[in-house]
């Protein structure tokens, strides 16, 4: 059970999803009003990769693969990540390096 004090603390969270998450935490951990206020101050919502950006990332990966003619592995998101190229011969490596440098 929560009190009006709990509700006032939780209403400070941005968005309904964050408020519902806070409510679940308060109920599960039997937090007092003061503990709830502290939890709200330190709460940082998890970032989720949006479906739009992951589909855009897949499209970028497909473009790079077709441009370089090599299988690639692209991890991360649109702001930060890792691009891994796989080659199977020295000639293939030299060809890709030439494309990247030009």
Main attributes?
102 residues, mainly alpha, two-stranded antiparallel ribbon, 2 strands
Characterise this structure:
This protein has about 100 residues and is mainly alpha-helical. The protein has two domains: about 5-40, no CATH class; about 50-100, no CATH class. About 60% of the residues lie in helices and about 10% in strands. The chain has helices at about 5-10, 15-30, 35-40, 50-70, 90-100; strands at about 70-75, 80-85. It has a two-stranded antiparallel sheet with strand order 1-2. A hairpin with a 4-residue loop joins β1 (about 70-75) and β2. It is rod-shaped, with a radius of gyration of 24 Å. The N and C termini lie far apart (about 65 Å). The relative contact order is 0.09. The mean pLDDT is about 85.
Q: Calculate the mean pLDDT score and round it.
A: 87
Number of strands: 2
Based on secondary structure, the structural category is: mainly alpha
What would you report as the Rg, rounded to the nearest angstrom?
Answer: 24 Å
Low-confidence residue ranges: none
Biggest sheet: strand arrangement = 1-2
Based on Cα principal axes, name the global outline. Answer: rod-shaped
Q: Which sheet architecture does the biggest sheet show? A: 2 strands, antiparallel
Please state roughly what percent of the residues sit in beta strands, choosing from under 5%, 5-15%, 15-25%, 25-35%, 35-45% or over 45%.
5-15%
Give the termini distance in whole angstroms. Answer: 66 Å
Q: Which H/E pattern describes the elements?
A: HHHHEEH
> Number of helix segments?
5
- Into how many domains do the coordinates divide? 2
- Subunit arrangement of the protein: single chain
Fraction of residues in H or I helices: 55-70%
């Amino acid at each position: 059970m929560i009190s009006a004090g709990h509700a006032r603390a939780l209403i400070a969270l941005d968005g309904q999803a964050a408020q519902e998450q806070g409510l679940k935490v308060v109920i599960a951990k039997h937090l007092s009003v003061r503990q709830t206020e502290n939890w709200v101050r330190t709460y940082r919502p998890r970032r989720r990769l949006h479906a739009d950006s992951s589909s855009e990332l897949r499209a970028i990966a497909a473009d790079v693969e077709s441009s370089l003619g090599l299988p690639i592995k692209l991890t991360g998101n649109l702001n930060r990540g890792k691009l891994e190229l796989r080659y199977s011969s020295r000639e293939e490596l030299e060809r890709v390096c030439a494309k990247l440098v030009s």
